């Protein structure tokens, strides 16, 4: 408990504060100098603050980044996140209608499969079939997806004449929510799936994998519905309960992962 109360001393908190400060500094500089070219950078740092802070916190707990080559993780972040956004955006446009507000409840059943396509493509090659590697791949893909989606919301806010400060506020709020939504939903499914596939040495559909996906998609749609649908304010606060439940399930699914011990350096002989 004492360690939790000293969260401000952890690397993840320092990274989050630094990225938020950089984002709003760029927005302030743009406002003062009138240089619109700074906006993409401001939006990127603001969108990345929350997801990258959570990634760092998870890595410090279980060292998952060491389970997959760095270039593979980078590719999953950039290319995998882009592919997930491409698929999710296309099918969102097909099945989500502004005239039917309840269609927002379909989002989880669209975007969660989209984010699983890139990690599944890696799993089907037979490489990185360990639970730690699957969590790392899933979180990397979800991070790329979440950052680009948050930037899209910021540009949409700007187009609605909310101004750069309004767009920055959108990024701040999404930075507080996306780590406990997109990242942990995909991380949960990948933890269960790759854990099963590690035992079988191949990617197969099992009941626990299907159950984990159903839970993640349901939580995703429920979260979006609580934020978008016209419901009473007190009921809308259940969004926080969904976020807590999402992270708790992810934490339980990954609690058996242990940090990889760093070998001690061999003593030098004079």
UniProtKB/TrEMBL annotation:
Transmembrane spans: 12-32, 70-91, 180-197, 204-222, 234-250
GO biological process per UniProt: proteolysis
Major enzyme class: hydrolase
Recorded GO MF terms: peptidase activity
Species this protein is from: Streptosporangium vulgare
Keywords for this protein: Hydrolase, Membrane, Protease, Transmembrane, Transmembrane helix
Enzyme Commission (EC) number: 3.4.-.-
Keyword Oxidoreductase attached: no
Protein name: PrsW family glutamic-type intramembrane protease
InterPro entries attached to this UniProt entry: PrsW (IPR026898)
KW Protease (keyword) present: yes
Signal sequence, start to end: none
